[in-house]
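Inverse folding, one chain.
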């Protein structure tokens, strides 16, 4: 295969790639959308507030062994519990 053949093949294959990129840019992950919705619910907002308070408390101290693992897990649990009930309704 010569250089000219490769150039011709390259120019032909460039067009479908652009179309595929445009289609991929339009797609939205339903999980992301549902997570964003669920993070606005009352339980998630309260859990996030506790997580942010803990983070601020830990960040304010220079020598502490405290971590916000429990608060993080509480937030993720609340969000994922909401997501579990809504996600599969959005899938095709």
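Residues assigned per position:
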């Amino acid at each position: 295969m010569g250089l000219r053949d490769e150039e011709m093949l390259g120019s032909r294959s460039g067009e479908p790639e652009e179309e595929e990129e445009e289609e991929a840019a339009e797609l939205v992950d339903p999980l992301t959308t549902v997570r964003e919705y669920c993070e606005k619910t009352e339980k998630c907002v309260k859990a996030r507030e506790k997580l942010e308070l803990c983070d601020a408390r830990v960040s304010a101290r220079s020598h502490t062994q405290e971590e916000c693992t429990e608060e993080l897990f509480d937030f993720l649990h609340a969000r994922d519990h909401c997501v579990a009930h809504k996600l599969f309704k959005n899938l095709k």
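The mean pLDDT is 82. The helical segments are 3-26, 30-38, 42-60, 69-90.
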